């Protein structure tokens, strides 16, 4: 063979080999770091990355993502990720991994160097800032010299009330939502189906063959039952969505309580409402944890696959593409099973292990949701996490449940240093939480039970001696507490409802120390807020009632046409009987 033919090809092979041996791993490492830093808005570190191509594999070590809100802390880190790819799918340009391993997964670890990125500033969470402000503005400046006339002289501006703003938003969204529900009552679709079945019935009625007629009637009957069943299902879904719209109005009551707390704060009086006190105590802490969870959800959704099967998409501008079915079709990327190990907590960490199954870029091709199951145990401590991510349908749905009992709580600070702060030490905690998402919508709840705790109130900001003494006495002998939270809304705009039995202790202390005049002042402030909100609330209630009546009437009319027409057609589906000739004797 000639050198002029062989030499260039050998040089090309050598260059390709040199690229993958010397340049591919550094370029892949650089690309991963830059991509993750863009999402995390903080430094990402990868100590080592090694790939092989003869037996396709990847080994990544020393991975860490810094916390954008804490320069010297990591959000997450792990020691090693490794996997080997199957050979056959690579021929189709697809990466399929049977078993992968993730070791040393930890959260909230400390860093030796700053993880802050230059020229990148993360916007503060609206939820965190609002609850911090509520807690900071919780007034504790005045005591028994309060007079009810204080509230009587106070003027409430409707434009500044959160409840009024929410009522206006609900009015606009209510109108749009009910219009959307009404548009879903598509009686014409079902009427067209009934008309087609009626035409088939007329044709079958003239059939002379008894057996064929009976068969046609049976098939038409099945189609009628199927059609009316689909309508009833759609009707139930529309009614369920309408009920959810009605429930959304309940948010006005919580907004009204926030307004009351704000008015009391402006009069330099603490709110006696337990919900307002609960938000002051546990709001900032829960908001920070919620904001972190929403950040992880947002980051995860950014890298989740789009709703497309991908492999069945025709890209050609002209002509026709014929797809030949295969016995086994692989997604573009699939990790069937990922085993993981790690530790939870910095002091006396809890070791855990688990498995994640069905990680893929094309869930609709794979046809199954991704699932995770993680467990850990150490002495009296127990960790149990279950999670599923279903992206096989029209929208991504997730469902997760976390239980962690026997959790050591060294120190926990509730409230705000600017108003009132409660330090909790030496407690053992038990956390139970669940969260469901459907697209952007959230529905979750969480509860933290503290036992064997010591509660130390910081009442230094309370100037009035009677109130200060009452607050300090409220936590004497207390050793347990329950903090609960419900989350609704969307990932971008979550809404929190917070409860704690600690609020009851504070409410009694405030009520006892401030006396009847403070209660009268609060009642007067509530009356003013209700008067300002009333016209907007009445307008919203009237709109909701009228739109609900219109929807009910439309559903009733559609049901009469569809089910009534179907029942009438079913009655006619009786095969013609042979008539015996009459004989005269």
Helices, by number, come to: 12
Mean pLDDT: 80
Structural class: alpha+beta
Strand percentage: 25-35%
Stretches where pLDDT falls below 50 for ≥5 residues? 142-149, 308-317, 577-585
Q: Shape from CA axes?
A: flat
Distance between the termini: 111 Å
Oligomer: single chain
Number of strands: 14
* Fraction of residues in H or I helices: 40-55%
- Summarize the main sheet: 14 strands, mixed
> What letter string, H or E per element, gives the SSE order?
HEEEHEHHHHHHHEEHEEEEEEHEEH
Instruction: Supply Rg.
Output: 33 Å
Descriptive account of the structure:
The protein is an alpha+beta fold. 46% of the residues lie in helices and 28% in strands. It has a domain at 156-261 and 533-571. The chain contains 12 helices and 14 strands. Helix 5 (162-184) packs parallel to helix 12, helix 8 packs antiparallel against helix 12 and helix 11 packs across helix 12. The longest helix is centred in the last third of the chain and has 71 residues, at 501-571. The N and C termini lie far apart (111 Å). The model is unreliable at 142-149, 308-317 and 577-585 (pLDDT under 50).
In short:
The protein is α+β, with helices and mostly antiparallel strands and 585 residues long. It has helices at 3-40, 87-90, 126-136, 149-153, 162-184, 187-205, 210-248, 251-266, 274-303, 363-366, 465-474, 501-571, and strands at residues 44-52, 57-67, 70-85, 95-107, 333-344, 350-360, 370-378, 381-390, 397-416, 420-438, 441-451, 454-458, 481-489, 494-500. Strands 1, 2, 3, 4, 5, 6, 7, 8, 9, 10, 11, 12, 13 and 14 form a 14-stranded mixed beta sheet that branches.
């Amino acid at each position: 063979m000639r050198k002029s033919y062989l030499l260039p090809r050998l040089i090309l092979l050598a260059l390709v080999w040199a690229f993958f041996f010397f340049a591919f791993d550094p370029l892949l490492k650089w690309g991963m770091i830059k991509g993750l830093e863009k999402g995390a808005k903080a430094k990402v570190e990868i100590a080592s990355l090694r790939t092989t191509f003869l037996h396709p594999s990847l080994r990544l070590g020393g991975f860490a993502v810094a916390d954008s809100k804490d320069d010297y802390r990591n959000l997450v880190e792990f020691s090693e990720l490794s996997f080997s790819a199957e050979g056959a799918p690579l021929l189709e340009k697809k990466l399929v991994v049977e078993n992968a391993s993730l070791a040393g997964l930890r959260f909230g670890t400390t860093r030796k160097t700053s993880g802050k990125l230059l020229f990148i500033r993360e916007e503060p969470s609206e939820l965190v800032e609002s609850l911090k402000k509520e807690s900071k503005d919780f007034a504790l400046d005045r005591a028994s010299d309060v007079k009810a006339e204080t509230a009587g002289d106070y003027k409430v501006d409707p434009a500044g009330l959160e409840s009024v703003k929410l009522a206006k938003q609900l009015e606009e969204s209510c109108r749009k939502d009910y219009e959307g529900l009404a548009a879903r009552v598509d009686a014409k679709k079902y009427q067209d189906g009934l008309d087609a079945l009626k035409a088939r019935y007329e044709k079958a009625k003239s059939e002379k063959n008894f057996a064929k007629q009976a068969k046609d009637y049976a098939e038409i009957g099945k189609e009628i039952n199927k059609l009316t069943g689909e309508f009833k299902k759609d009707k139930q879904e529309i009614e369920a969505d309408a009920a959810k719209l009605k429930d959304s109005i309940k948010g006005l009551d919580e907004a009204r309580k926030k307004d009351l707390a704000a008015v009391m704060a402006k009069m330099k009086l603490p709110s006696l409402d337990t919900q307002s006190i609960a938000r002051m105590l546990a709001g900032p802490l829960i908001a920070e944890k919620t904001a972190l969870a929403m950040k992880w959800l947002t980051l995860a959704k950014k890298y989740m696959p789009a709703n497309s099967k991908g492999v069945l998409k025709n890209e050609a501008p002209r002509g026709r593409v014929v797809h030949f079915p295969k016995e086994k079709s692989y997604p573009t990327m699939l990790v069937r099973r990922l085993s993981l190990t790690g530790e939870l907590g910095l002091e006396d960490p809890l070791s855990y292990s688990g498995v994640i199954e069905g990680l893929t870029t094309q869930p609709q091709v794979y046809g199954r949701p991704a699932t995770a199951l993680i467990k850990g145990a150490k002495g009296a401590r127990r960790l149990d996490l279950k999670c599923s991510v279903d992206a096989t349908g029209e929208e991504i749905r997730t469902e997760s449940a976390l239980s962690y009992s026997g959790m050591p709580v060294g120190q926990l600070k509730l409230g705000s240093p600017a108003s009132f702060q409660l330090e909790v030490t030496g407690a053992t905690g038990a956390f139970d939480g669940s969260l469901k998402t459907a697209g952007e919508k959230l529905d979750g709840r969480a509860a933290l039970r503290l036992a064997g705790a010591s509660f130390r109130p910081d009442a230094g900001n309370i100037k009035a001696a009677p109130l200060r003494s009452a607050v300090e006495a409220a936590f004497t002998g207390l050793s347990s507490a329950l903090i609960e939270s419900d989350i609704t809304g969307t990932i971008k705009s979550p809404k929190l409802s917070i409860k704690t039995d600690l609020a009851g202790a504070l409410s009694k202390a405030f009520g006892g120390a401030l006396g009847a005049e403070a209660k009268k002042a609060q009642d007067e402030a509530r009356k003013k807020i209700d008067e300002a909100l009333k016209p907007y609330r009445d307008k919203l209630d009237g709109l909701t009632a009228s739109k609900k009546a219109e929807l009910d009437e439309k559903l009733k009319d559609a049901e009469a046409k569809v089910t009534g027409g179907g029942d009438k057609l079913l009655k006619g589906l009786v095969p013609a009987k042979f008539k015996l000739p009459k004989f005269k004797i």
